[in-house]
Design a protein that fits this description.
Length: 235
């Protein structure tokens, strides 16, 4: 990755810490979350710099170590009472704002494509429309939490649409990587995400964005149920 300009890595590092900071605010400044996420980033950095993820001919791919632990963590949080309590106390305003980091992420992916370490299919010129999630997050935040004119139904619809866009690029990124089951971009595979600092995208930014969508969806559904119960009781 020596051919990648230094500024791209710096901007990506700033974007990663911005996503961590926004989610930290969503947790109401949880020191436990901050300690866990910073430790996770440090561990993955050391593993990546040692060249662990450069080996791509294994099955399952070593890349799984970046995404499986965060996914398991999300499952545990949603399936335990302590985890659900944590989820329900997260600040919804910051769960919206965190999606703005998808704007610089998409710009960075485009730059990486120009240097042929990410395929075009993973950019806005290909099949990746995730930048729309970041741009629309600003609109959703303004009308939902400043003007307070956006309904919970619209918030739910927006979350489901943007969740779909996220899943789309996750699948494309995995199937574009130089693994034994690679399906896309055989001439220009996704290799950037196997190197530091870009390994932070699958192990940190994407899980935080995914978790924010799932959390807000849960909060909105629970709110609708409570409102229906109140209406039923009043009748």
């Amino acid at each position: 990755m020596e051919n990648i300009p230094f500024y791209i890595s710096i901007i990506f590092i700033i974007t990663t810490f911005l996503s961590v900071f926004i989610f930290y605010k969503a947790t109401n400044n949880s020191k436990i979350f901050l300690a866990v996420i910073l430790t996770w980033l440090a561990v993955q950095s050391v593993i990546s710099l040692a060249g662990f993820y450069k080996v791509t001919n294994t099955l399952p791919p070593r890349f799984a170590l970046l995404i499986v632990p965060p996914v398991l963590c999300i499952i545990i949080l949603f399936s335990t009472s302590v985890g659900r309590k944590f989820i329900d106390n997260l600040n919804p305003k910051f769960l919206i704002l965190i999606h703005t980091v998808r704007i610089p992420v998409e710009i960075i992916l485009f730059w990486l494509c120009l240097y042929k370490v990410v395929p075009q299919i993973m950019t806005i010129e290909g099949r990746n429309l995730d930048i729309l999630s970041g741009l629309s997050a600003l609109v959703i935040y303004y009308f939902g939490f400043i003007k307070k004119t956006l309904s919970d139904t619209m918030l739910l619809i927006w979350n489901f649409i943007c969740l779909g866009l996220l899943i789309n690029i996750i699948v494309i990124a995995i199937l574009s990587a130089p693994f034994v089951f690679q399906k896309f971009a055989l001439d220009q595979p996704n290799v950037a995400l196997l190197y530091f600092p870009f390994i932070w995208l699958p192990c940190c930014i994407v899980p935080l964005v995914l978790f924010s969508h799932l959390t807000l969806i849960r909060q909105l559904i629970l709110k609708r149920r409570v409102n229906k119960s109140v209406i039923s009781l009043s009748i």
